[in-house]
Amino acid sequence: MNELRKEDWLLDLGTREYTEVWKLQKELVERRFHDEIPDVLILVEHPHVITWGRKRSVVSSFRVPHVSIPVHEVERGGEVTYHGPGQLVGYPIRKLEGEQRDLHRYLRDLEELIIQTLDDFGIAAQRRAGATGVWTMGPLPHKIASIGVAVRHWVTYHGFALNVCTDLRYFQMISPCGFDGSIMTSMDRELGKTVSLEDVKGRVRARYEESLRCSMSRLHWSVGVDLHPICR
Questions:
Q1: Residues carrying an active site annotation
Q2: Buried b (16+ CB within 10 A) or exposed e, 141-163
Q3: Residue 17 phi/psi, 5° resolution?
Q4: pTM
């Protein structure tokens, strides 16, 4: 007998401005709460942006030569982080029901998703007590993925940011999640070679479907247009 698998949606947005996707997330949270849509996983790459979570202090101006980076205060957990080209950002819009209503468990599930994805590329990764996110193994662990979530009506939004081929110099502008910027690393840096963002997306999707026992349909979406599934 075939296992019954729930049907979720995958929304691959390519590269989109942070504020555009932030607004979309909040719209999807409301629709998911009212059961108008199934769970959705958004995958996206953002242009340079810095966000502050609920553990924020005074927001300053952040600059590197010839680049001015926008800063947004948002409702996710955690402190300050950077998003930019070469970083895969995932926003699961999931309705937590029954025994799933456990935010600690949900955070650990996101960490496990990233740990398993990295393992597919030969990168050994781990959790670190008291420091949500995913870290490399070894005597001097480096942070390779950041996690910060929000929940409304027990529907999740915000999510994870995995450094694939990110320019790590941008983290030197901030104290990512309270750490010195030098603590950050990327898949490219750990492997010593270029990693395809599209390949990483594929493995994230496979691991997500495996862990949640679901199948995902791809979506087409543009500003002002409703979501429409187009293919598997």
A1: 177
A2: bbbbbbbbbbbeeebbbbbbbbb
A3: -60, 145
A4: 0.89
Residue linked to tokens 């402190």: 79
Residue by residue, DSSP assigns 15-60 as E--HHHHHHHHHHHHHHHHTTSS--EEEEEE-SSEEEE-TT-----
C-alpha–C-alpha distance, residues 56 and 52, integer Å: 6
Closest CA to 81 of 170, 209, 186, 192: 170
pLDDT tens-digit profile, the chain (232 residues):
455 578 899 999 999 999 999 999 999 999 999 999 999 999 999 999 999 887 655 444 455 444 578 888 899 987 889 999 999 999 999 999 999 999 999 999 999 999 999 999 999 999 988 888 999 998 889 999 999 999 999 999 999 999 999 999 998 888 666 677 688 999 999 999 999 999 999 999 999 999 988 999 887 766 555 665 543 3
Q: Are 167 and 85 in contact (CB under 8 A)?
A: yes
Cα(198)–Cα(44) distance, integer angstroms: 11
Report the binding-site residues for substrate. Answer: 76-83, 146-148, 159-161
pLDDT of residue 180: 73
In angstroms, how far apart are the furthest CA atoms of the chain?
A: 60
Report the CATH superfamily, name and number, of domain 6-231. Answer: Bira Bifunctional Protein; Domain 2 (3.30.930.10)
d(CA 114, CA 135): 10
